[in-house]
Amino acid sequence: MTSTTRKRSAPSYRCTECGWTAIKWVGRCGECQAWGTVTEAGQTAVRTAPAAVIERPAMPIHQIDVTQATARPTGVNEFDRVLGGGLVPGAVLLVAGEPGIGKSTLLLDVASRTARSGRKVLYVSGEESAAQVRVRAERIEALATSLFLASETDLGTVLAQIDQVEPELVIIDSVQTIASAQIEGSAGNVSQVREVAAAIIQTAKKRGISVVLVGHVTKDGSIAGPRVLEHLVDVVIQFEGERHSRLRLVRAVKNRYGPTDEVGCFDLSEVGIVGLPDPSGLFLSGIKDPVAGTCVTVTLEGRRPLVTEVQGLLAPAGGGSPRRTTSGVDNSRTAMILAVLERRASVPVLKHDCYVSTVGGVRLSEPAADLAIALALASSLLDKPLPQGTIAVGEVGLAGDVRNVGGVPRRLAEAARIGFTRAVIPFDAMGGEAVPDGMRVFEVRDIQSAVRAIPVGPVA
To answer: Where do the segments described as Lon-protease-like lie (predicted)?
Structure first.
């Protein structure tokens, strides 16, 4: 080999999901940890030639027909609330949730109600037979003449079913069970999911039909499959809930046609799934007489206020390190509130076993519930119940300060509607708005003032 001969440069490899590069091929991306996404970069590719005939020529923007992007209600009000009014023709939705949480039941109800409105619906099940889907449809009274069922796992057959039925709504349960014969690998891997999603999205846009894809989730609750799947679809919906609770929450993580701060509430029972336009009563214990260790707060799920009861119990530790057990609230945040009570409000709680739980299986994730947790624990230690009809809203800081949270007027209005008459809130949280009629407000600046604002007993 002469000195003038150029050495061939070593190939480089790039992840198609996140762009991470490597000098050699690996099966798993070192950045996003996705499998099968690392491919050789810099390969010579055949450039795509311009199309000879344009099927849909570009038009001036003022001549575009906007009626094609109008949402059509499904008949399930809570589902339509999350979507922003209903399903848009040509839109592709991805519904994700844990197994057995009720995704198929909800979508079968959506399919039947849409079919009863006079539109054709195709329900493709890759996990169950058509007979199994029919049995569940009978149980939840979801039979409709215009609802077509098919049990298929081949992508080509699914596309042929769409051509034959010509539906206005297609539900595929689930996208991880469909595979293409032209792509190597089993159903559910990265290449198959990408091909299936791309083919179905192309069909939806070309025909102007709405498509709902059911997606699996991983152990940590994220959507399984390549991240490009979430980027391709128009709407990503999370279906949440605890197995031991009947409450189910539906929220939009991504929505090109509506808001992402709306939450739909459903009650899942043996006879089906029913929307809950007013779910606040589910999160209250129903005890008439005040009990020590309980406090009510108002949390915001999206733009919807939910009145929720927090229960706390402090018991003398039996020896060793005190226990910290929580259900429905963050364990680390509860430990922080205990430390603030001990240090800033002189409430001796750290040497006690602590148990904190919510009513109804709801999970409180926003800091606005801090003040209610603190008052419930102080009430339990002093064995003095808070006055009946009291709520508490506010974030507790490490300095013992009670910080303002968003939507306090809306929270108080919901609490007043339920029948609550007292509220402990951060100082100047109302922002000049009027206090609801019949409600007495205690504005506090710190946790010590909050404990003393309500007569739960003397502070040690």
So the answer is: 353-460
CA 94/CA 192 separation, integer angstroms:
16
What SS3 state is found at 22?
Answer: strand
Token couple for 182: 């032209």
The answer to whether the annotation marks 438 as part of a ligand binding site is no
127 belongs to an annotated ligand binding site: no
What is the C-alpha to C-alpha distance for residues 299 and 201, in angstroms, rounded to an integer?
A: 37
Fold (topology level) of 68-277: Rossmann fold (3.40.50)
- Ligand-binding annotation for 281, yes or no, is no
Domain segments of the chain as ranges? 11-42, 68-277, 282-453
Residue in 124, 92, 119, 93 with CA at minimum distance from that of residue 108 = 124
The reply, when asked if residue 200 is annotated as ligand binding, is no
For the entire predicted model, the pTM comes to 0.75
Tokens representing 389 are 């009809």
Task: Extract the tokens encoding 434.
Answer: 């009027």
Would you say 357 is a known binding-site residue? no
pLDDT per position as a tens digit, 64-90: 887 777 899 999 999 999 998 999 999
Is 100 marked as binding a ligand? yes
